[in-house]
Structure formats: C-alpha cells, structure tokens
Design a protein that fits this description.
By secondary structure, the chain is mainly alpha-helical. It is built from twelve helices and six strands. A three-stranded antiparallel sheet has the order 1-3-2, covered by helices on one side. The protein has a three-stranded antiparallel sheet with strand order 4-6-5, with helices on both faces.
Amino acid sequence: HRSAAALPSAQPSTQRTMADRGEEDDPPQTAEGGDGDGEGASGGGKKGRYRRDKPWDHAGIDHWKVDPFTKEDNPDGLLDESSFATLFPKYREKYLREVWPSVTRALKECGIACELNLVEGSMTVRTTRKTFDPYIIIKSRDLIKLLSRSVPAPQALKILSDDVQCDVIKIGGMVRNKERYVKRRQRLIGPNGSTLKAIEMLTGCYVLVQGNTVSCMGGWKGLKTVRKIIEDCMKNMHPIYHIKELMIKRELAKDPALASQSWDRFLPKFKKKNVKRKKPSKIGKGKKDQVFPPAPVPSKLDQQIESGEYFLSQEAKRRRAAAEKLEKQKEAVSASQKKRNEAFIAPKEDAGDGGDGGGEKKKRKSEVGNEDVAAMAASLKAKSKSKKDGDEKKRAGKSDGDEFIMKAKKRKS
C-alpha cells in the first residue's frame, strides 16, 4: 500500500502533461486573445484557451424571448393521455352552461378535449391525438380552476397564451377570527374596489377576490408582487403602503440614469407601531372581595341527593311523582274555578272617601243633582197648583150658569 503522502506529489505531473497535450492540440491564438470573449482569452489564460467562435450567437439575440410552440416542433404528438378534473360550486352551473361552447371551441384549437358534468358538478380536460404542445394541458387545468373560482370566461381564456400565468391564493386559513378576516378582505378590495383597481394597474395583473380565495392572472413578476401584497394584507399590513412603493418604483424606472443604482434611498420606510391599549384600572372584583372562587352550581343529581330522592326506590319515586302531579292538577283546577267565579262577583261601588279630589268631585255632582231635583219639584208644584186653579174656575163658571138658568125659569113661572 502506498502512503497518503505520496499521492499529492503525483497530481501536478499529471496536470502538466494534460496541459502540454492541450497546448499541442490547440491552434495558435492571436495577440488579441483569439475570439476575444473573456478576460482570460485576452491574457492567454486557461479560461479562454478552448473557446471557439459561435456564429449562431450575437449581441442582437434576445435570450429572454420565448418562441411560440408550433405543431412543427412536435409533429408526432404525445405518447400518452393526460387529464385533470376540478369541482365547481352549484351557483356557477348556470353560467358554465352558457359559456361552455366558447370554452370548447378555444380548447379544440389547442387539441384539448373538455367535458362538463352537471351531475357530479365537475369539469374535465384531457389530451387527444391532435395535441402537440405538452404544456397546454397544464394551461387547460388552470383554465377550469379559474372558471370554478368565478373568473369570467373571456378573461379566463387568456391563460391559454404563453405570456399569461395564474395564481390562486388561499386566504381563508390566514386569519382565525371571522370578523377580523372579513375586515381585512374588505380592506384588500377597498371602497368601491378602488384598492383592487390600483393593484391591477400597478402590477399589470387581473385580480379577483371570491370567497376564501384570490385569483390572479398576469406575468410572473406581477404575480409575485400581488401575492406579497395579499399575504401582508392578511397579516394586518395595509395595501396602501405597497401601492405607494410601486408608484415610486414606476417613476424611478423611467429614468435610465437610475437603472444601475440602488433605489433604497427613494423608497419610503414605514415603521411598525405597536399601539398599546389602555388597560382598565380595575377588572372585576378585587382580591379582598374574592378570596375563594364562587361555589359551583349544584347539578340535578346533587339536588336529588340533598332532598333524599336519589335513595328512594323506583316504586316510591313513581308514587311521589304521581302525588306531585295530582297536587299540580288540584292547583290548576282551583285556579280555573276561581277565574270562572270572578265573572259572577258584582263590582264594588266607589266610596265617597276615596280621596280629596274624588270626594270633591262627588260632592259637586251630588250638589248639582240636588239642585235639579228641587227645581223639578218646584215646577211640578206650580203646574199642579195652576191646574187646580183652572179646575176651580171651571166649576165656578158652571155653577154660575146653573144659577142663571134656575133664575130665568123662576121668572117665567
């Protein structure tokens, strides 16, 4: 066995032989450094020693450009079938039935078959023999996911293009308190949707808040910004801070002189303020008043043990329950009988000494009544007296006539 100390000594010689062999095979380079791509090439270093000219690569090529995937790129199609399915809520059924023909036509152009199952409440997309783009099935999966989250069909169909991506952010589990969650979600939307509209304009993304999710569509950079805004909003950070920052960044991007500089000195720095709430001076009762905890409320079993009912036999309990029931029935019968008898009791007449005001009123009434009776009696007496006088006059007149007739007869005789 060779020792470990002998091994490193053999390595430099091996490297030298390989370098000598490379120098022999390598064609002579110019003084300018061969292809002139790297700094090592100009100095004749190891880095530029094996570089060759690349006629297919030049400064006019945009390496970030994504070329469209056509049928000529994959004429043989796919090897196997892939499919995705997603469920949709009941309230989306009517709208999906209306727009499903347009969705089917758009997916048919891409070689994707789709199915709307109203019985199970699901949407399914699958590849066919005409499918040539292997990534279009992922785009179709995102399409049915957006349709199930209440995104309008014309907007959702834009996801099939290569420069549009989507992100469905679940915000339901970020806040435990229901009231606090509703307030923060409304804060994200803003009055009349103004905050959401500002986020869409600054990020270049489509944002829709629906239920416990937020659906976003746009470029990768915009989606990353939108996700950060939404997550910070659910963590009790107002979206207006991000909106101010994005507006400043948009203005700074217009200046080419600031392209290679740091923008930290221009961006606002917001300090976190932990506002302490005022604690009440005295919460509940003091320690002097509450030495021991309050006694627990006795349960039904404790009450039975205390009254002795718990230790009775079943027959005794039955008899006791029957006696209590009979007693209640007697009380109910006596109460109903008393209520019936109240209808036959004559109402009490009001006494004159009920009170000062009442007595005075009654006295006044009685005085008025007595005056009326006296006047009526006087009028009746006057009428009877006048009647008597008239009768007496009649009688006197009749007697005078009789006397005159008698005198006349005597004269004739």
